Amino acid sequence: RFYTPDPLGPGEFVLTGPEAHHLTAVRRFAEGDEVVLFNGDGHEYPARVLSAGKKTVALSVLAPVAADRELGFPLVVGSALPKSDRADFLVEKLTELGATRFVPLLTTRAVVQPKASVVEKFSRAVIEASKQCGRNQLMLVDAPQKWDDFVARPDLPGPRVVLHTGPGLGRVGSGGGTIAVGPEGGFTPSEVDRARENGWLVLSLGSRVLRVETAVLAAAALLGERSV
Ligand code: SAM
């Protein structure tokens, strides 16, 4: 599977840049070989290699095939970021689990606050993970957002759930929605209050304190289940 941001359709198509390099130099595809192209429009496009150069690959693209590997409902995750390589891991796994949108969060107790440049970095990770897991729609990556702005956003699907540690909280369910995960230092009481004021539920994943990426992935796996 090879990705292009360009529109695709039956006919000749020229693939360039890192994907062309990947196709020829890394994967060693050559004239006559069959590959699959995707661009995030929900389809995949079987194609045959016409000629394979180092920097450009000419392909004959066939009719698109609908290949829907989405959850069927929106699953938005807002999260404080763990340190660099664990953040990349988090984005890769969230893509595999079918999340539809990821929002890096600016929170009070975060050791590292996300910079605007993470959008490009994470978007590349989404493409790589989509090539591997077969998704034909890309998880969206938003610009880092302040907690107060995030919890007041009108476009987030419900139920909206803040994951929080501590006793006496209800447990996370299934069927999509929005989850928010705090930094290694946890959410402050006023951040939790602000979410509650905006109608968010405050729920738990159990009695053990999980790392940010574990909490994100466990919650995404639970919410990614279809409700019964
Ligand atoms: N000392 C912090 C505290 O007690 O809140 C630990 C924060 S934890 C490393 C990072 C984030 O993961 C938390 O803010 C929360 O969003 C989420 N989290 C971790 N364990 C959780 C659990 N058992 N239930 C719900 N959320 C959890």
Helical coverage, percent range: 25-40%
The low-confidence parts are none
**Which fold name fills CATH's third level, the topology of the largest domain?**
Alpha/beta knot
Number of strands: 14
Q: Radius of gyration from the CA trace?
A: 20 Å
Structural class: alpha/beta
Give the integer mean of the pLDDT values. Answer: 94
Q: Note the gap between the termini.
A: 34 Å
Question: In percent terms, what proportion of residues is strand?
Answer: 25-35%
Query: What about the largest sheet?
Result: 8 strands, parallel
Subcellular location: Cytoplasm
Function: Specifically methylates the N3 position of the uracil ring of uridine 1498 (m3U1498) in 16S rRNA. Acts on the fully assembled 30S ribosomal subunit.
Domain Ribosomal RNA small subunit methyltransferase E PUA-like: 15-61
InterPro entries: Alpha/beta_knot_MTases (IPR029028), PUA-like_sf (IPR015947), RsmE (IPR006700), RsmE_MTase_dom (IPR046886), RsmE_PUA-like (IPR046887), tRNA_m1G_MTases_N (IPR029026)
